[in-house]
Write a structure and sequence with these properties.
With 343 residues, the protein is of the alpha/beta class. The strands form 3 sheets. Strands 3-2-1-4-5-6-10 form a 7-stranded parallel beta sheet, with helices on both faces. The chain has a 3-stranded mixed beta sheet with strand order 7-9-11. The chain has a 3-stranded mixed beta sheet with strand order 8-12-13, with helices on both faces. The chain is globular and about 55 Å long. It starts with a strand and ends with a strand. 46% of the residues are buried. Bound molecules: nicotinamide-adenine-dinucleotide and thymidine-5'-diphosphate. Thymidine-5'-diphosphate binds next to helix 6 and strand 8. The site of nicotinamide-adenine-dinucleotide has 30 residues, from helix 1, helix 4, strand 5 and strand 7.
């Protein structure tokens, strides 16, 4: 099978390409990625010479380029990861999330419709369900109540993708995963940011009271779920993908301090994120029942593996945390840090 993967130079996309080619060495993958601040070909340096792998630099919003690629390559499967994926950046500047997550998805769907692509797996997020009161859990029919420009654009792209199935019979499947963590995650997201700050004895910024709850999914488990949907998902269906482990952000931060051997005095509360969702909770019964998938890596094992990966990839971290990152970090945390306080 010939796969077209979008956003394959990012965190989950690069893990997926590595996972998939190891599982299905006879298949081939074309990776279409714009290489935004979050895209990094270094994430794929170990497979750049794999005979089944090719890279094309390009923007999924570029309709002529996308049509040309679909026409020339005729992929059997599209796995669509490319997105502006960070809530905080979408709050600072919502336009890129709108462009890539909505217009980019539309451009790909149009090409899939025109060239009759065999399967289109649209990678989405549990954030489309918004914040849930305890003890609610969202199944795939739960109402969509996104809170941020990021999650609203993702919710819109999910609906657009599903409408292409209903109207044009484009064989779309949507996956909605919970918070991922693991190797190669850009250190703007909670876990790699706290881990790399802890290594440098820098403050660990905790938004608000730190009691927000997230469900954590090790990235390899997410890749296995996507591969299961590629192989056996039903067209027009949505599959939630949760990690079966949820906890408060403060718990995550304290575990990171414990595993890195750093003091609790590094914890600092900072001003909260506007519109901050309090609690995500997901039911993954459907993918377990239909496709036999369930997460294998428990949180303590996954977190220890993640910390070890960041410890042994210090040069990756220092390159990624270079110029642009420093600028973003200063801009984003400057105002928040005026409210810094020890927990
Ligand atoms: P990421 O930010 O690490 O990577 C995004 C990738 O997309 C980058 O390589 C970037 O260069 C590329 N990209 C961005 N705009 C593009 C464009 N216009 N054209 C082509 N390429 C473009 O993101 P991630 O964390 O790997 O997330 C991947 C997908 O998974 C996203 O769709 C996200 O919504 C979804 N998701 C992420 C999480 C999570 O916890 N990270 C959880 C659930 C779902
Ligand atoms: P994040 O990794 O940005 O994922 P998402 O917003 O998609 O869930 O954030 C995870 C949680 O951690 C979320 O509740 C916000 C919180 N958070 C902090 O407390 N401090 C930080 O510096 C960051 C980046 C996130």
């Amino acid at each position: 099978m010939k796969l077209l993967v979008t956003g394959g130079a990012g965190f989950i996309g690069s893990n997926f390409i590595r996972y998939y080619l190891a599982e299905r060495p006879g298949d081939s993958i074309l990776n279409l990625d714009k290489l935004t601040y979050a895209g990094n070909l270094e994430n794929l340096s170990d497979i750049e010479n794999h005979p089944g792998y090719r890279f094309v630099k390009g923007d999924i919003c570029d309709a002529p380029l996308v049509a040309e690629l679909f026409g020339a390559e005729r992929p059997d499967v599209v796995v669509h990861f490319a997105a502006e994926s960070h809530v905080d950046r979408s709050i600072l500047s919502p336009s890129p999330a709108f462009e890539t997550n909505l217009r980019g998805t539309f451009t790909l769907l149009e090409a899939a419709r025109q060239y009759k692509t065999g399967r289109f797996v649209h990678i989405s997020t549990d954030e489309v369900y918004g914040s849930l009161e305890d003890p609610l859990e969202a199944d795939e029919n739960f109402p969509l109540r996104p809170s941020s420009p990021y999650s609203a654009a993702k919710a819109g792209s999910d609906l657009l993708a599903l409408s292409f199935h209903t109207t044009y019979k484009v064989p779309v499947m949507v996956t909605r995963a919970s918070n991922n963590y693991g190797p190669f995650q850009f250190p703007e997201k909670l876990i790699p940011l706290l881990v790399t700050n802890a290594f440098e004895d820098q403050p660990l910024p905790i938004y608000g009271d730190g009691r927000q709850v997230r469900d954590w999914l090790f990235v390899e488990d997410h890749c296995a779920a996507i591969a299961a949907v590629v192989a056996g998902g039903r067209e027009g269906e949505i599959y939630n993908v949760g990690g079966n482990f949820s906890c408060e952000n403060l718990h995550v931060a304290r575990e990171i301090l414990r595993l890195t051997g750093k003091p609790e005095s590094l914890l600092k509360t900072v001003a909260d994120r506007p519109g901050h969702d309090r609690r995500y909770a997901l039911s993954s019964v459907k993918i377990q029942r239909e496709l036999g998938w369930s997460p294998r890596v428990d949180f303590s094992t996954g977190l220890a593996r993640t910390i070890e990966w960041y410890r042994s990839h210090r040069s990756w971290v220092s390159r990624v945390k270079g110029g642009d990152y420093r600028q973003y970090y200063q801009q984003h945390y400057r105002d928040r840090e005026q409210t810094l306080s020890r927990l």
